[in-house]
Amino acid sequence: MPFLRASGILLHPTSLPARGGIGDFGPSAYAFADFLAAAGQGLWQVLPLGPVGFGDSPYSSTSAFAGNPLLISLERLVERGWIEQDHLNSLPNSNGLVDYNAVFYQKLPVLFEAARNFVRAAPAPARSRFAAFCNENQWWLDDFVLFDGLRSRFKLQSWNEWPHQFTQREPSAMERAREEMHEDLDVRRVVQFFFFEQWKALRAYCASRSIRVAGDMAIFVNFDSADVWTHPDLFRLTPELSPEVIAGVPPDFFSKEGQRWGNPLYRWDVMREQGYSWWIDRMRWLTQQFDYIRLDHFRGFSQFWEIAAGEPTAINGRWVDGPKDDLFMKLREALGGLPFFAEDLGYITDDVHELRKRLDIPGMAVLQFGFGDKGAHTHLPHMFSSEKVVYTGTHDNDTSLGWWKSGATEHEREQLQAYLGPDDNRINWAMIRAASASVASLCVIPLQDALGLGSEARMNIPSQAQGNWRWRFSGDALRPELAKKLATLSEVVDRLPKPFVYSAHEDWVA
After folding, report:
1. Any catalytic annotation for residue 296?
2. Could you say which of 23, 39, 47, 416 would form a disulfide bridge with 486 (CB–CB 3.0 to 4.6 Å)?
3. H or E element: which one contains 389?
4. Catalytic residue of the set 24, 143, 387, 396
5. pLDDT higher than threshold 70 for residue 509
6. pTM, full prediction
7. E strand map for 120-233
8. 343, 387, 398, 412: the active-site residue
9. 364-420: pLDDT as tens digits
10. Is 410 a catalytic site residue?
């Protein structure tokens, strides 16, 4: 069943201009929401918001439930009185590429100082909100802060390299650690409290401007995460607690050697015996954070690529059946609806499409993939139904201009010009118009395409381990004339946003 017709912008918060070397939930996020409203956009799509792990990727997180501390706004903490303005003034205020190493060493200490100040001096109303947050989220929060604290104590070593009593989660060692680290764990709880208070406030502001927020869920979780450490029985691990088999995809459009992601694979048999309780917790949590949720690598729920952990690439592997309908029926029973859309890109077989259709979950189309051989035309508007979410490109693609200038083949360029008309200088806008005018229920445009940027603004190159996720835009890029242009287009293609009640989810698929 399609979503309400709307258009929106894909922008991860790290790409916002902000003090501290990385975008966050501060003033620039609210200014971006204002821009979306002025531009007639009813959707803001973000990437996963968890704390980043290997490669600084939002899809490589140390928790499926915690928030990324780097997204906490220091300006907001100053306004609340948890840190002094001087701390803010000492941090860089550039809009350049994110330097994650510098951000970790410069911003995190300030965040932890603010959290310590909160623990020491929070007034009763704030302390009451914090206590309620801890009580409501104890089911994931206590394990996460202990994992995070021990990870820091052991200098970011993977958890299976910690002392034996901690890798095995021996009760006496765990209780002793909680007692010894009591103050540190409280500080880490406050950091998470800061994150979710700021995120809740930003979402409420977006809702007041008739903007829904779409999140993104990576199907797999990191091995070095609180989730695997806490629930090793749910993952395919060896007796020594290292991955037995790992996730990835075989060779495809993005990589000749495939993509060896390295995430441990699930023990779906055990999850089924437990009534998929971990998945129900995970999805319920996500539906509390977002209006819609993009399911990354949806085909993994039908079949996933299993790679022996010792294989250096993803070439040698095999397809193994996933949980298919069984998981989603349990989710529908527990959640009352499935506010999802599926990332069904790449090598997709009929069984994946059939699963998605049985579940009434919209799929995706990406215009950049629509030109060339005939089989690619499913990504072009004349092939769409309303049960589709269309993009000009995603975070894994080059920008539309970058692709046009250096990535597209001559045949693709010929086909694009035949389909959209010759317009070398504004090909991004030809693609935006085509996506917007289509019958797809949701149209999502990366901000880079709306701004007309080239390959220098690309967010991610799949299979490249380092140097991704760094792009940021400058504060003066969101000009009124751009907002007007987008708003006029949204109006003529009937995509102007409609007011809604925050968290009502009135258009969930039942």
Report:
1. yes
2. 39
3. strand 388-391
4. 396
5. no
6. 0.95
7. 212-217
8. 343
9. 999 999 998 777 899 999 999 999 999 999 999 999 999 999 999 999 999 999 999
10. no
